[in-house]
Every structure is written in structure tokens, then in C-alpha cells.
């Protein structure tokens, strides 16, 4: 804007037939309609600089089509600064092919012209040619490495070509020059978060919180990073800090509630999850954790409607559907409704066939609760047949399976003996 203003003021030197001081003052005061009124009335007698000033006044006042028409109707071939102004007008009106033609010609003449270069890079980015954008901007930054706008556009281009580490490097470079720039800090924190670099996201966000005091944007990022990293106590602390400042948003209620659930503070989690549910009753995570929390109370089946709702919202996400049906199975098993518990274990197994423990859970219910030896043995044997040939007992999951295998082997031996004596008695 300042660059364009200076160009326009310098152009007044060539306008000999008008009160240059008056036009100068009008332009500095942004009184563009008055400039337009004076210059339009003498349109046929304007020199190059007069046409330029008229087009610039149109552009600054928002009459972009008039600016374009003025420059397109210019009698002579457009001087360089007129080309730049026309290119800017084309760009602002979204006429990218027309702007691109000028950008390419101007870039070939002078690859260091900042205004043209930025339009050129932005047009390439708009057209999805992010690799070209990266080349153009890297060439420019080789001579002006700390240019803020060029670095920001380059970082965004790297993100669009799925090179977040390059983007991170650039955002960090900008922050070294502008350490309290919240826009850059937020973009870097979000990039860390998307890359699952939760510690880096948390540390950066807290740096801004320590510097700026209460700031919802960075407290939220720090809280989400803590949540993803499994630091539930920290998650609760950060979001409660936001709550203390009057924040009652879904993200605050939801994350406090889920973190408290993970800490097994089920009764404390319920008010937050109920609040979150009242704000958004079609959030599958809210429904799931509200149902799961209620499942830990004295009346576990109160949670069933919320888990069923979660299941209806989650389809067809196998991982989450598995968890929903596991919780429903546990609820019904605790309530003594063994037929439904078995059915839900079986559905959970259908979503996660590698989790063979669900077969064991069903077999155990048939064995110890329903006294159905035949069905129990069938499922015990199916459980054994689904186990890998070798189990790495150094791993928690395989160690658990190995122990279950020992239990099932022993139980099948006992059941075989019981069958033998039972048949002998008969």
C-alpha cells in the first residue's frame, strides 16, 4: 500500500496541467473520488502519469473494473509500472490467467521485484502449482531470507505438498525474528500438533501463555497437546484454567470430562460430559465417554443409550465401534444380562478379529455363569486356534494372551476330566 502511494505521488511530477499540490494532498488523505472526478474530466489530455494516477485512484477506491478499463484502453504500450498496476487489478478481481501473463513477463525481466513475485507465487498456489510456488519463493528468499510474507507463503506451500517439517523450519525461522507473533506461533503449534509432535506443541503454546498471559488460542493448543500425549492431569488443569475465565465451550467441557474419565474420576467427569452433550448431542466421543462413565456407576445400564447413540454416529469406524460394543458387553455382564453381554462381545470381535480375548470372554460366561460346558469348550478351542503360533511374552499384549492360553489349557483339561467322569457315571 505504501509503495503504491509513493509511486502515485511521484507520478504527480509529470502532471503539469493540474494543481499537483492539491492532488498530492488528496491522495495522501485517501480522497480518491475527488482525484477521479478531476482526472476523468480531462481524460483525453492525460499523460502517462495521469492515466496511472487515475487507475491507481480507481484501484484504491475499490473500482477495480474501472482501473482495468483505464489501463487496458491506454493508447501506448504499457510502461512497467502500469503493467504492475494492471496485474494487481487483475489479481484482485480473480482474473488469474490475465494476471499470470504479466507476472511471467515481469518475472523474466526482473525476478527480484517483490510485488510482482508475490502475486506470481500466489497465483501459482491458487492454481495448485505448489511446487512452482516453492521454487519461486526459495529463489527470492536466497537474497532476502527474512522477508515475512514470502516466508509465510512458502511455509503454507510446503504444508500443501505435505512437507510439514519444511514448514516447521520456516515458521521457527520467522519466530526468531518476530518472537511474539501470534499468527506464526499458532500456525507452528498447529503444524506440530498435526505432525503428532505433542511435546513441541505444548512447549511452544506455553511459551506464548507465559509471555502473553491468558490466551484462549494457546491454552487450547496446550490442552489438546497434553490430551493427545496422555497427560490427563495437565489437560484438566489447562482447560479448568480456561473455565475459570468464563470459557464454557464444547472443547473445554469435553476435554475435561474425557480426561477425568481416563483418570477414573467417573463421578467428576459426568457433569462435564453432560454439559458437552447438551452443547452437541451428535458428538460420538462425548456420547461414548458419557455412556462409559455412567457404566461405572451403581446403575451401569444408564449409560447404554449414550453408547448406542455413539455407535450410530460412528459407523463405520471399526476401532471406535469395537470400543462401544466392548463397553456395552461389560455393562450387561455387570448387570447379569449374560445373553446380551455375549452378543456385544461377539460384535466387538467382528470389528476387531485380532482381539481374540473377546472369544475367551464369551467362553468364560458360558462356562462360569451359564454352565454351558459344550459352548464354553467350543469357544475356548476357537480362542486357542486363533492365537499366533508364537507369542512374544516381552510384549504386554502377548504376555496377557500367553497367560490366558495357560488358563484355557488348564480349564479344558479339567472340563475333559469332568466330561469323562460324567459320562462314566451315566
From TrEMBL:
A Pfam family it matches: TPR_16
Domain of life of the organism encoding this protein: Bacteria
Organism (species): Carboxylicivirga linearis
Alphabetically ordered keywords of this record: Repeat, Signal, TPR repeat
Signal peptide: 1-19
Protein name in UniProt: Tetratricopeptide repeat protein
Placement of TPR repeats on the sequence: 322-355
InterPro entries noted in UniProt: TPR-like_helical_dom_sf, TPR_rpt, Ycf3/AcsC/BcsC/TPR_MFPF
Amino acid at each position: 500500500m505504501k509503495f503504491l502511494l509513493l509511486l502515485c505521488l511521484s507520478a504527480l511530477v509529470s502532471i503539469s496541467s493540474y494543481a499537483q499540490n492539491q492532488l498530492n494532498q488528496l491522495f495522501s488523505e485517501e480522497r480518491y473520488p475527488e482525484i477521479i472526478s478531476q482526472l476523468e474530466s480531462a481524460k483525453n489530455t492525460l499523460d502517462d502519469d495521469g492515466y496511472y494516477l487515475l487507475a491507481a485512484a480507481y484501484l484504491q477506491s475499490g473500482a477495480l473494473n474501472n482501473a482495468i478499463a483505464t489501463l487496458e484502453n491506454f493508447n501506448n504500450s504499457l510502461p512497467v509500472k502500469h503493467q504492475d498496476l494492471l496485474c494487481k487489478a487483475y489479481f484482485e478481481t480473480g482474473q488469474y490467467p490475465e494476471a499470470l501473463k504479466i507476472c511471467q513477463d515481469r518475472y523474466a525481466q526482473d525476478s527480484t521485484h517483490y510485488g510482482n513475485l508475490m502475486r506470481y507465487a500466489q497465483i501459482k498456489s491458487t492454481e495448485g502449482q505448489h511446487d512452482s510456488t516453492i521454487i519461486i519463493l526459495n529463489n527470492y528468499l536466497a537474497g532476502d531470507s527474512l522477508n515475512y510474507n514470502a516466508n509465510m507463503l512458502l511455509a503454507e506451500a510446503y504444508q500443501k505438498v505435505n512437507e510439514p517439517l519444511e514448514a516447521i523450519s520456516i515458521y521457527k525461522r520467522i519466530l526468531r525474528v518476530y518472537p511474539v507473533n501470534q499468527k506464526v506461533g499458532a500456525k507452528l503449534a498447529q503444524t506440530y500438533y498435526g505432525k503428532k509432535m505433542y511435546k513441541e506443541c505444548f512447549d511452544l503454546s506455553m511459551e506464548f501463555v507465559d509471555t502473553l498471559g491468558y490466551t484462549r488460542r494457546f491454552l487450547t493448543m496446550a490442552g489438546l497437546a497434553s490430551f493427545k500425549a496422555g497427560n490427563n492431569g495437565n489437560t484438566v488443569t489447562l482447560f479448568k484454567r480456561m473455565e475459570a475465565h468464563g470459557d464454557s465451550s464444547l472443547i473445554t467441557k469435553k476435554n475435561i470430562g474425557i480426561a477425568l474419565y481416563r483418570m477414573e474420576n467417573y463421578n467428576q467427569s459426568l457433569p462435564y460430559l453432560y454439559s458437552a452433550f447438551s452443547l452437541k448431542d451428535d458428538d460420538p466421543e462425548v456420547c461414548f465417554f458419557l455412556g462409559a462413565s455412567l457404566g461405572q456407576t451403581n446403575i451401569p445400564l444408564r449409560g447404554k443409550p449414550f453408547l448406542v447413540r455413539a455407535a450410530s454416529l460412528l459407523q463405520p469406524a471399526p476401532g471406535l465401534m469395537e470400543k462401544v460394543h466392548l463397553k456395552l458387553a461389560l455393562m450387561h455382564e455387570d448387570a447379569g444380562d449374560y445373553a446380551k453381554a455375549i452378543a456385544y462381545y461377539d460384535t466387538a470381535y467382528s470389528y476387531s478379529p485380532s482381539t481374540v480375548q473377546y472369544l475367551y470372554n464369551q467362553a468364560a460366561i458360558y462356562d462360569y455363569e451359564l454352565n454351558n460346558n459344550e459352548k464354553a469348550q467350543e469357544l475356548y478351542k476357537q480362542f486357542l486356534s486363533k492365537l499366533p503360533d508364537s507369542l512374544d511374552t516381552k510384549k504386554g499384549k502377548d504376555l496377557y494372551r500367553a497367560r490366558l492360553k495357560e488358563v484355557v489349557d488348564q480349564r479344558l483339561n479339567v472340563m475333559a476330566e469332568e466330561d469323562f467322569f460324567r459320562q462314566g457315571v451315566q
